[in-house]
Specification:
single chain; alpha+beta; Dihydrofolate Reductase, subunit A; three-stranded antiparallel β-sheet; 19% strand; globular
């Protein structure tokens, strides 16, 4: 996969992450201040999921069927428990779901 790295970060408050991703993001999360957000990078989001570094998921479901696409919760991403904390629907039918991380999921059986 080709990765393009910007030589200059132009967004206010941007920080380049060098070295180990889990360590770099963990250090950012430990600082006081605002939240960290990932927009449009499924590869980065999957890396953060594998390290258990995502606290809240904001998922938008659009009312279209495309037939194919890239899976966000793909192979290699460990199972995670989620707790629904908010749901909204736009006038055009976009469903906006907010989930907080609920730790390692528990599994059971139905009808035992």
């Amino acid at each position: 996969m080709d990765v393009i790295q910007a030589t200059e970060l132009t967004w206010s408050g941007s920080h380049r992450l060098d070295g180990d991703l889990a360590t770099a993001v963990g250090e950012l999360k430990s600082r006081p201040g605002g939240e960290l957000q990932v927009h449009g990078s499924g590869v980065l989001a999957q890396s953060l999921m594998r390290e258990g570094l995502i606290d809240t998921y904001h998922l938008l479901i659009f009312p279209v069927v495309l037939g194919r696409g890239r899976r966000l919760f793909a192979e290699g991403v460990p199972p995670a428990g989620l707790r629904l904390t908010d749901t909204r629907t736009s006038g055009s039918g976009v469903t906006m779901l907010t989930y907080d991380s609920a730790g390692v999921p528990t599994f059971g059986t139905v009808g035992a």
